[in-house]
Write a structure and sequence with these properties.
mainly beta; 1 helix; single chain; Immunoglobulin-like
Length: about 90
Amino acid sequence: MKKKLRRITDTFDIPSEIAAGFYIELFSDREFVFSGDVKISKLEENSIEIIYNNKVISISGSELKIDYYTSGGIKITGSIEKIEFLQKE
């Protein structure tokens, strides 16, 4: 499992400390699904930020909206242009 996790983090440039315990699905550039306990820290039409384990996942694009947000995850749709994994300040 560690070897597979290392390949995933290297391939997608995801910090290894957040790469365990969640699941991300991307459907083209139109849908982002995150399974895990997240909190929304920023909500704008062109930018949504969620917090997971002291990290910020920033989704940028146009006409972004949240289809669902539960204790188990979040689904964001729209025209997704960029996803960034940032250190929480």
